[in-house]
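Structure first, sequence second, as always.
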């Protein structure tokens, strides 16, 4: 009877094929590994403890680059190194080390998140007077658009300023709207109004009839100059960091809101100049 004997052939590590695990690669990328780190870690997991030169050859990189990658993985706590016969060998730690790595990373992120939250006011202060945001322009069409833009001014915290075109609203037949708006502004919102308006009999009569109560909530400066009064074809409201323009020509009704800190500040300055000039009769 012939006795069969098994023969084993030792294959040098350099000849073992490099097999990649695409899904495992992706998982390692997701937790912060670079492609090269993932490749080195997976290869070490497969072939066991090896010197730098062997690992470099296996993953197709030079020795210096490979050594830097391995040191990074050691710092992550996912591989270990040891000296043997004058050479440094690297080996992959148990896969549980990946969970430990994530725990440490999460704690670090939590720490810096807390630190960053406390520093947000300082980052905002850096913008200072040099910060700039482009104006945000919103357009609203039709009579309903005009009403929407009018009511937006009631979002002012305490007061808003206006170049009033009351005569345009009255000509349009919006007398009741103006009365309702006045009640909402004064009674509900408690927002003061300081305005410049053309001095016409129609406008005077409207204010005398409807603004007898709460006189402290409305300060109107009437312009008697007929030529100046004719220039009030549009109404301009100035409030917070916004200006609103209202146009009331039948068939061409629209409202525009421009949100800009710089433009609103400039319009407030123009209003103050006009107010002071009109009071002095300049």
């Amino acid at each position: 009877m012939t006795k069969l004997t098994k023969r084993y052939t030792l294959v040098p590590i350099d000849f073992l094929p490099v097999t990649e695990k695409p899904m495992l690669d992706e998982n390692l990328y997701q937790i912060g590994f670079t492609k090269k780190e993932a490749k080195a870690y997976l290869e070490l997991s497969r072939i066991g403890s090896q010197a730098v030169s062997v690992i470099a050859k296996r993953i197709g990189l030079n020795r210096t680059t490979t050594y830097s990658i391995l040191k990074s993985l050691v710092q992550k706590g996912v591989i270990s190194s040891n000296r043997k016969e004058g050479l440094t060998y690297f080996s992959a730690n148990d896969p549980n080390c990946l969970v430990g790595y994530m725990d440490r990373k999460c704690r670090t992120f939590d720490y810096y998140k807390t630190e960053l939250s406390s520093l947000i006011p300082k980052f905002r202060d850096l913008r200072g007077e040099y910060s700039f945001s482009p104006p945000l322009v919103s357009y609203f069409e039709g009579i309903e658009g005009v009403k929407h833009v009018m009511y937006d001014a009631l979002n002012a915290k305490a007061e808003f300023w206006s170049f009033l075109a009351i005569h345009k609203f009255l000509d349009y037949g919006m007398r009741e709207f103006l009365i309702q708006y006045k009640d909402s502004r004064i009674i509900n919102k408690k927002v003061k109004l300081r305005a410049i308006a053309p001095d016409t009999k129609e406008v005077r009569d409207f204010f005398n009839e409807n603004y007898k109560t709460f006189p402290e909530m409305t300060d109107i400066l009437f312009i008697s100059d007929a030529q100046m009064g004719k220039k009030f074809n549009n109404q301009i409201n100035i409030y917070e960091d916004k200006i609103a323009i209202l146009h009331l020509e039948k068939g061409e009704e629209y409202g525009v809101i421009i949100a800009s800190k710089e433009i609103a500040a400039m319009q407030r300055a123009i209003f103050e100049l006009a107010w002071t000039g009109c009071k002095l009769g300049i």
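Margin note: The longest strand covers residues 192-198.
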